[in-house]
Amino acid sequence: MKAPAFAYVKPKSLEEVFELLERHGEAAKILAGGQSLIPSLNMRLSAPELLIDITGLKQLANISLEAGVLSIGALVTHAQIEGSEVVRKHAPLLAEAVGHVAHPAIRNRGTFGGSLALADPAAEYPAVALALNATIFLKSEKGERRVAAGEFFKGLFETDLRKGEVLVGAEIPAQLKDERSVFLELARRHGDYAIVGLAAFKGAAGTRFAFLNAGAKPVLARNAAAKESLAEAKEALSKELDPPADLYNSADTKKHLAGVLLARAWNRLST
Amino acid sequence: MEQAFDITLTVNGTAVTRRVEARQHLVDFLRDELGLTGSHTACEHGVCGACTVRVDGQIVRGCLMLAVQANGCRVDTVEGLSDSKELAKLQKAFHERNALQCGFCTPGMLMAAQDLVLQKKKFSREEIRNHISGNYCRCTGYQAIVDAIEDVIQQA
């Protein structure tokens, strides 16, 4: 359970990161909080030749609010999000979700951008980003690309990040007064990977139910969201969700639990 | 590219400089290079919490941070906080409440618990449980550990 040998570099600027990515290509991996990457190294599931530690890029560690849009830098830690008054006020869904992200010691180092870039289907932020229609910012030597969360998550640990690009942050529209949101998750132990979870958002344009760990990537239950009654929504959900079984839960169990979460969210959004 | 680095950090108040391999995580560094074997290695993938140490005042998983990343940081381990008596109340409460049996998880448990004690709020048992949810104990069933932490939080 020891990581294989690798080289390490801690660049001082994004330009330096781009150069390193250009030079080392697939052999290099970006290290941010390391709370998923280092376990995978320790378990030898991954063996990069070079780790590019971007934690020195302090400009990526800020949360700001401007013109009704919340900007969260890639290096903002879970603990920062948890302690942020701005997030609590303007992105209550994210504030509710962060309490489910692992445990305090991990929240102190794990990052917002790392979670989005990894795209673990059981992770909270990708589902939150999808529910809130977040825009993800990617930078490379060529410039900046902005990708909607709905297009960013492609599959199991697979995103729209291209060769040479670094995820630098995301923008979330601040929640308006008459908008509602709720984050729910079922796990075997508080802070463990979710069996299934739900990030739900209700606004003037409609309701968005984004399920986590119910597929290879966060799943937007469009049909369920379009229904008038909870019974119809649950029926629609059971047809549009096809969650994979895991070590402890069958696909049917997960589907059932997703329905339980849908009912809880439905009731909270409509009261 | 370099695979080994000279790092300087402050461990339990003492400045140390060592050459480390990039692949070495912080707990192996503390244990193997500095002989501080109070922080334990067990799962080494962030699940058990036995390696919990404090870096720049925040608790972290020592197995999920590279030693090279601690360059320039202030690291506190269970040895340091024990010697400085910062953990004295918790240690006494753990003893009185029988909050350990084999003791393997105890250093990590104390580090996580002290993080809560330092926040100086009257946390509920539920909140205490949430806070130590990342620390596995395979002996006690947690009840006595929560009792001990609750005792110290009530005294504060």
Helix content of chain A: 25-40%
Shape of chain B: elongated
Rg of chain B computed from alpha carbons, rounded to a whole number of angstroms: 16 Å
Quaternary state reads heterodimer
Helix content estimate of chain B: 25-40%
Strand content of chain B: 15-25%
CATH fold naming of the largest domain in chain B: Ubiquitin-like (UB roll)
CA-to-CA gap between the ends of chain A? 49 Å
Could you name the CATH class of the largest domain in chain B?
A: Alpha Beta
Number of strands of chain B: 5
Rg of chain A over CA atoms, rounded to whole Å, is: 19 Å
- Under the CATH scheme, the architecture of the largest domain in chain B is Roll
Count up the helices of chain B.
Answer: 6
Instruction: State the name of the first-level CATH class of the largest domain in chain A.
Output: Alpha Beta
By CATH, the topology of the largest domain in chain A is Uridine Diphospho-n-acetylenolpyruvylglucosamine Reductase, domain 3
The mean pLDDT of chain B is: 97
In round numbers, the mean pLDDT of chain A is 96
Number of domains of chain B: 2
CATH architectural group of the largest domain in chain A: 2-Layer Sandwich
Q: Can you tell me about this structure?
A:
The complex is a heterodimer of chains A (271) and B (156). With 271 residues, chain A is of the alpha+beta class. Chain A folds into 3 domains: 47 residues, Uridine Diphospho-n-acetylenolpyruvylglucosamine Reductase, domain 2 (2-Layer Sandwich); 116 residues, 2-Layer Sandwich (Uridine Diphospho-n-acetylenolpyruvylglucosamine Reductase, domain 3); 90 residues, Enolase-like, domain 1, CATH 3.30.390.50. In chain A, the strands form 4 sheets. Chain A has a 5-stranded antiparallel beta sheet with strand order 4-5-10-6-7. In chain A, strands 11-12-13-14 form a 4-stranded antiparallel beta sheet, sandwiched between helices. In chain A, strands 1-3-2 form a 3-stranded parallel beta sheet, covered by helices on one side. In chain A, helix 11 packs antiparallel against helix 12. Chain B is of the alpha+beta class and 156 residues long. Chain B folds into 2 domains: 78 residues, Ubiquitin-like (UB roll) (Roll); 71 residues, DNA polymerase, domain 1 (Orthogonal Bundle). Chain B has 6 helices and 5 strands; from the N terminus they run E-E-H-E-E-E-H-H-H-H-H. Chain B has a 5-stranded mixed beta sheet with strand order 2-1-5-3-4, with helices on both faces. In chain B, a hairpin with a 2-residue loop joins strand 1 and strand 2. In chain B, helix 3 crosses helix 6 and helix 4 packs parallel to helix 6. The radius of gyration of chain B is 16 Å and the shape is elongated. In chain B, 46% of the residues are buried. The mean pLDDT of chain B is 97.
